Amino acid sequence: MNITLFGATGKTGPYLIEEGLKRGHEITVFARQSSRFDYKNVRIVRGDFTDAIALHEAINGADAVLSALGPTQFPHPKGEPIAHATQALIDIMAQAQVRRLIAVSTGTAADPDDRYDMKIRLPAILIKYLMPSIYQDIVTLAQVIRQSDRDWTMVRAGFLTNRSNSKGINVGVYGKTRHQLALSRLDLAKFMFDQIESDSYLAKAPGISSC
Ligand SMILES: NC(=O)c1ccc[n+]([C@@H]2O[C@H](COP(=O)([O-])OP(=O)(O)OC[C@H]3O[C@@H](n4cnc5c(N)ncnc54)[C@H](OP(=O)(O)O)[C@@H]3O)[C@@H](O)[C@H]2O)c1
């Protein structure tokens, strides 16, 4: 399959790329002009999120789009750049008739079915008051994904690690599922690729954590 990755220039990128290549997919990575990124055996399309032609080049013909876009800079700029970038790629997905979107979010983006889980709610409150521009972007990003007419799955993570072995994952809304805080990027990448041909979490936002 042809899979287009956004946010793969960040720390989760190598895990996503390696998982995709291992499964035999053709991988396209959209990289911002400013991003120092190079990787073997993937197609790289460079552009900015205001560049509809570059976005179309990256997305057209894809069987699915996976996004690990998230706040990198601190302080995070105001104006919700991650939500806007995601809206831009969703608009181009619609134009190119690409339906499947699997995007990473965080426990800070609450789901209506969540119940109280202190290890998720406490960081969310701290982010809300200490890093309001990040908080606002995360909340708006979740709205953008939920309101899209794509076949979306929003994968919510607590705290990402680079643990290299997988002992399995916990999946489900917070407060109703036995979760750890940490999720390895390896488990995240596997879960995202598993969703490409699964409709188990269509229009859902499961929390996931490593066992
Ligand atoms: N780190 C954690 O503990 C944690 C916890 C929960 C959820 N998450 C989520 O997991 C995902 C992956 O995390 P990570 O640690 O791998 O992320 P990361 O290393 O910070 O990478 C973030 C990606 O987003 C892109 N990006 C950042 N700011 C952008 C902007 N203004 N416009 C467009 N693109 C932008 C970066 O592109 P450039 O290379 O061009 O900067 C990069 O590809 C993110 O969605 C993050 O929110 C992370």
From TrEMBL:
All copies of domain NAD(P)-binding, residue ranges: 7-198
Taxonomic superkingdom: Bacteria
SUPFAM superfamilies recorded: NAD(P)-binding Rossmann-fold domains
Database matches in InterPro entries: NAD(P)-bd_dom (IPR016040), NAD(P)-bd_dom_sf (IPR036291), Polyketide_Oxido-like (IPR051606)
Protein's name according to its UniProt entry: NAD(P)H-binding protein
Species: Vibrio porteresiae DSM 19223
